[in-house]
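Lay summary. Proteins are chains of building blocks that fold into shapes, and those shapes determine what they do. In this project we predict the shape from the chain. Here is one chain we studied, written as its sequence of building blocks.
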Amino acid sequence: MIKRYFLNNKKRNFSTASIWIKGGSDMDSIGKKGINKILCSLLTRGCEGFDNFVLSEYIESHGAELNQEVFEDGISISIKSLNEHFKKLLPLIDLIINKPILSEIEFKKVKKSSIDLIKKDKENPFSICFEKWRKNVYSGHPYAFNVIGNSNDVSKISHEDVLSEFKNFEKREKYIISNNLEINGEDLESSDQEILGEQSCLRNYNLDRINRFDYVNNNSNQTIIMLGNQTCSRKSIEYLPLKVLESYLSYGMSGALFKLFRERNGITYDLGVFNPVRNENAPFLVYLSVSNRNALFAFELLSSLWKDLLLNPLIDSEMFLAKEKLKGSFLLGNQSLDEILQRKIQLISYGISPISGIDLNSKIDEISSFDILKITKKYFSKPFLSISGNKKICLEINNSWGKNF
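And here is the predicted shape, written in a compact code that computers can read:
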């Protein structure tokens, strides 16, 4: 049974339907990490009445798009076309979800593609460093693993395993949303709705662990530093204060990270904050990349910034700018219908009720600098550090790390 929703998002000449299936890579069983990524890809490679080639040709002949993606806590599948063709294409969603072919030939292709993605990921120092960080932070939790799995597990996954996983998939909660009335779903009323949680934060994992540092030795001239911790669910009242903090740190050239590392010192290649929406405790991670000669200095700067966040509340002008940038980011996210539908159906699946955009801005305005300080003390007093770089430099940073944290 699929729960259906209609969102009247202004008149457009195209329609989109986005379905969210509750449970993604967090449903991967031990020894089969990556199986839901394979299943997700396989679903869109043929369904009742359409083999892989016929399905592709049918979609392309109508100038439509079919996309799929797996996340830690869900699977997203969407179809998009001009309004005049949408009625013909919408039934494909039900067929893909309920009556996929799941052929063994296509399974072999998808499995090979997953193995290739894993190999490519292993060549990316950022990916390697992030894997180290989240395995340390989320030890024993599904969020510790990459959605594409690992080569050892994926190589052993069989076609029969995927068919068995589909039986599990059939039982999962499913939600679909569209801007087209053909969806025959519950009307969500207005297009300026946003979602706000009112529940307390979920239980944290391993926040008191002694070992909060790890590194990867590489022979390049680049050092990658990642510092942060798990925080809260999207359902938590702490979500918005954390977004204000993210805005303060990383939104635009006025962000504290840009001003500190680029404007004043000019020492970073790449930097930012990673804080995605999650049904359980989301990561909040500051990342930066510097040359080896600047690595220790960069870490000292980051440590100084981190300590300041733990000790001192943001001043009024910093809070005002961070809030305005955050409001602007939400407005920017409302410009794309695909993003709007994806976000709303995902959050509906989390059990979060919609509020108006005006009320959302009001909630942001109510956040104080002491709310931010309270959250930084709660989540960032014992952060986790991961480094990719020259072994000697990594150990030097570790010494500094031990003194500071």
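What the prediction tells us: The domain at 195-404 is CATH 3.30.830.10 (Cytochrome Bc1 Complex; Chain A, domain 1).
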